């Protein structure tokens, strides 16, 4: 049997820790390597609410101050600099040329592409010509070691791409054709997802990505699989108004099709998450968010089953059919094994 190198062992430990929500364990392992080689990061904001930056300030292990002072070298962030317009553009281009292939570009917010990007100008170049966000990101990205799309808007267009979308807001998947973009979707993304991805990039290079460019260590499983209300679903107990006990599928929960580890990692320093707070999952980590997950509080496309309804028009025909087949098989199995027998649709006590 081949022996693991120290580097391989640390990578295995880190991946295992972060997969089960052990962020403190992961960053205790990574801290030494970070301090020896601080990675330069250029952070650019597109069209959005700056919620992803706000989420990052809630990072616990490491804290935001430690992240900025010890772990990464944040060369530029529009909310943390006094440079604007011409001076900012010139400085970022100069930095990128001098550090070609040795910095990470983080992009937050959607990218307006209409009229060659002229609806979102970030400043002027050396000749006084306006620089569109699309041009700015493309030039920086081509010189970066890797590009991180932070938040659903930067990944796939997100809330800014809601139809009719007159500015043609889109994600980085429409800007870069090469396989160098890492998507960290969420509205906003969990701080651990961001810091953990940066940690992996610095220590080990590109993480394993799924078909939508998301790090598999965070987005491999479905929200539904580890939901604390899963037992209600298995026993066909569904809430029909907020505040009731039961699975939230009838109230629009998109957990059965949404990938992420929210239910085991939790938010706000491990205190809670959307479903625990009484809200259905709105599917914010998926490429179809929000155009095909709205209305948020309306059940998924109508599929008549014993004790369950879901919906194909809001999810899209293909996805709705796939969801329906899966839920049908799941409930049929429960019925055959007797797990549904003797349970009411509401409440949780067996019938006599």
From TrEMBL:
A Pfam family the protein falls into: Oxidored_q6
Protein location: Cell envelope
Domain of life (superkingdom): Bacteria
Residues bound to [4Fe-4S] cluster 2: 224, 227, 247, 253
Residue sites binding [3Fe-4S] cluster per the record: 262, 281, 284
Claim: Metal-binding is one of the keywords in the record: yes
UniProt GO BP: anaerobic respiration
Cofactor(s) of this protein: [4Fe-4S] cluster
Record-listed [4Fe-4S] cluster 1 binding positions: 49, 52, 153, 187
Signal peptide: 1-30
Keywords, sorted A to Z: 3Fe-4S, 4Fe-4S, Iron, Iron-sulfur, Metal-binding, Oxidoreductase, Signal
Gene Ontology CC: [Ni-Fe] hydrogenase complex; cell envelope; ferredoxin hydrogenase complex; membrane
SUPFAM superfamilies: HydA/Nqo6-like (SSF56770)
Primary subcellular site in the record, as a coarse category: other
GO molecular function: 3 iron, 4 sulfur cluster binding; 4 iron, 4 sulfur cluster binding; electron transfer activity; ferredoxin hydrogenase activity; hydrogenase (acceptor) activity; metal ion binding
Subunit field text: Heterodimer of a large and a small subunit.
Record's protein name: Hydrogenase (NiFe) small subunit HydA
Species of provenance: Thermincola potens (strain JR)
Organism phylogeny: Bacteria, Bacillati, Bacillota, Clostridia, Eubacteriales
